[in-house]
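Person: Please comment on this record:
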Amino acid sequence: MATAWPAFEAELKKANIPHEGHIYPDAVHGFNNDATPERYNRAAADQASRRTIEWFNQYMREPSNS
């Protein structure tokens, strides 16, 4: 995915689709799965989790009426 990201991102931009993409150094496929210690990367998993929640809060959450 890392090598395909520039072309993928260009298409997302062309279609005006809100997006973020991050490449985590030293993280491999499955880096968020703590059941596989050989792949798990806690620092990357924590950062990815925070970024995901922030993105959903920004783009998917209904605005509050307060």
Remarks:
- The chain has a mean pLDDT of 91.
- The first helix runs from residue 5 to 14.
- Residues 31 and 39 are 5 Å apart (CA to CA).
- Helices lie at 5-14, 42-59.
